[in-house]
Amino acid sequence: MRRNVIRGIVVGAALGAASLAFPTMATAAPVSDMNCAKTSTPTSANGWGNTFSDEQGQAGKVTATKVVDTDGSLEFMTTADKPREASYHAAGQLPLADAAKKPLTFEKSAGNANWQIRVTGANTGANDGFATFVWSAPAAAGKADAASSNQWWATRDLPGIARGKNATLAELTAAANSANHKTVVDHYGISSQPNEKTGKVNVDNVSFNGCTTNFAATGASGAFGSLDSLIP
Fold it and tell me: Which of 105, 121, 165, 199 has the fewest CB atoms below 10 angstroms from its CB?
């Protein structure tokens, strides 16, 4: 799967970091427990989605399928014709070092689901310093916590860590920030890209830098968090 993921998400770097931004979220403050899209629904995405030009049509969908709670989840359905799906939220250029200090969790059904942390400013040798940091959750259903895992990898070479080589997020962060670079997170999200191409996985309660988003298809009207006015 790793080779496929690299192929799928590296293409965007050639477009330049500026073209990868969600225009309506570009000036938002860094995401946190106080600046948080607490709920995302089919009618009020609350900043969640996928508007990257190289990933058109790949966003997941909020459905009534239960993962843990009873109000729904974010569903990724992949096929031979569409072997990858991904949904993101703007991080407001949160320093990567801050993100690496807090839990990185989501709850999932059985299937392939991956953290995607898109950064700029990293020590990659390119002017924009664009890279994506990726972590794949175990295939079984359950709560996935990636914060202390040594199975993270980057889509770009970093000093001392080759592209695709496993490392902790702290190690990737240190390498990205070496030589006075200041790496920031532009977007974070979840993807699904199973080796067998066809599959389904449901994800809920995505927690990043203290912000936990509940994906709800029912019974969630009105509770859209402090980013409600920034819905794209």
Answer: 165
